[in-house]
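Quick one, T. Sequence first:
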Amino acid sequence: MTEPQSAHADVVTLTREGDLALVTLNNPPVNALSTALRAGIVAALAEAAADPAVKGIVLTGGGRGFCAGADITEFGKPPREPFLPDVIAAIEACPKPVVAAIHGPALGGGLEVALGAHARVAAPSAKMGLPEVKLGLIPGAGGTQRLPRLIGPATAVKLIVSGEPVGGAEALKLGIVTEVAEDVVAAARALAQQMIASGVAPVGLSRDEARLEAARAGRDAFEAAAAEVLKGARGAEAPAACVAAVRNSLDLDFEAGMKAERAAFLSLVAGDQSKALRHAFFAEKAAAKIDGLPADAVARPVRSVAVIGAGTMGGGIAMAFANAGYPVTLIETSAEALARGQGNIDKNYSSTVARGRMSEAEKAERIARITGSLDLASVANVDLIVEAVFEDMGVKKTLMADLDRLAGPDAILATNTSYLDVNEIAAATSRPEAVVGMHFFSPANIMKLLEVVRAEKTAPDVLLAAVEVGRKLGKIPVVVGVCNGFVGNRILRAQRNDLEALLVEGASPAEVDAAWSGFGFPMGPFAMLDLAGLDISWRARKALGQTAEIADHLCEQGRFGQKTGRGFYRYEPGERKPLADSEVEDLAKAIAAREGITRRSIPAAEIVERLLYPMINEGARILEEGIAQRPGDIDVIWIFGYGFPAWRGGPMHAAGSIGLAKIRDGLQARFEQSGRAEFKPAALLERLAAEGGSFAG
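Structure tokens:
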């Protein structure tokens, strides 16, 4: 063995062991493919290829993984040579066998580098995938051409469009790797020696057409897979571009397929959708930063949890904690309610098992972590208590006072309220510094967003604990301030300001929902209200002294949505398909006649503006008040909590694409027409529009 001799030994090392060269990527923390790393790979390969004593090469990553892909610090900058496709071509063209030894992440360009090798072995811990679609891109360094040649185009298109990684065992099953071993470098060395001993010149995937020939003969499998993966695209460009690129592997030779892939990649990277998705990516990372904390603040330890309330929300929260390995005490007031809640938890886990996403053993292990109790004093020895009881201030304050009396001195008292004043809830205790909001989104065991509500007296270690726990649950925690509805639901309320007016002026619920779905949302607002239950927002309005004439009338008739078979739509027994209801239209017509409003056909573009502009306006007010730390936090909340199309970047990013002056003028016109103060442009929006600025700065 000799000392490293690569021209870029700071990021790539080359060491010799007998007749093998070990090329190791060393660009911590994730071996991102910086310009220096790319150049280092090329230099190390050239050195190994030129050395007559070297017969084969093992390519691996130092530290925690193989290579997690592109260097995000180079995003948006002019690309510099050597370009990644050329680096991978150099690996593939090496006259000596190159074996990739993969542990940890091999993602995006990292997996494409491994696909350039002549063989691959992986550790069980490896995570391999092409997640470019999540940034509005396609793999741009041969992934759409080499992966289909390795595992077949039908399987490849599913992996590429999902963007989800697979582990070592699944990669072996799919054929991405030929072996899984704990000591992945030793296994790669052994495989390289076998390839050397065979005396056969290494062949790269660019020259391997066997699987494609079979796929061309039975093309229906690919087309069926392509149609399936595009079902949920909802206006996103990248999934269709991925499908087209993989289809090129069937229709074009390798060089032409590569050229088309690169052209598509460059077009997408310059487009608005990828810019929006990259914004969302960085906004999610920025949301982890919490303003106003002491530099030496550390999270209060949380080892055990109690959840108060075993209803839909409480049960989901308990599952989220159990899934993350926390022991959970689930507390209810009656044996019947507790049994019902535990039964729903069992049913949810059984459904996951039936879908093949969990084993019976895993289900049993998670359920065993949840202990039911009818005694509120069971909270005495837990570190974190999350109340998930009825959304009523009196109920929550009474419960918090009881928890204050029964909980240990260092326990964190968290409220799952989605609207109520956390400062008032905290004031019901003798330790307001220990109270924090943890607003989970339903279903709590699935939804990724967690609004962490910092009350006036929440202690830094408590706030940090809530955020840290959220991450351990696999959530995306975003810190927000106290106001009615916090960030997400406050903006949701603003989005609904013009809903009933749209119905009165001539739009049907189906037309409004179709326009919003066309914008990219998974569901329109009326369908969502029916799904959630109209009684929920009805109670919230009554608590605030507000009214909504059509919705209030429906609720007074017992029409609460899907659960009662009628809401803004009607539903056949046992069906979820919304059907038009003439009674809703008749009510809207009657209001229009009373108010002297001439009904008309409302274009989809106008519907979208009248839903979206108030959201952006309310976001501006939230920023003015300091309820959100930064515009990107609002975007993250709406993408992960409410289904805002990520490829539009969230409401505050979308505002920049539309133009703040246009939004200001649209709101001002609506304000003058309706006389309603909620449409008056916010001061921050007015100022930025006048300056020609944006929320991004």
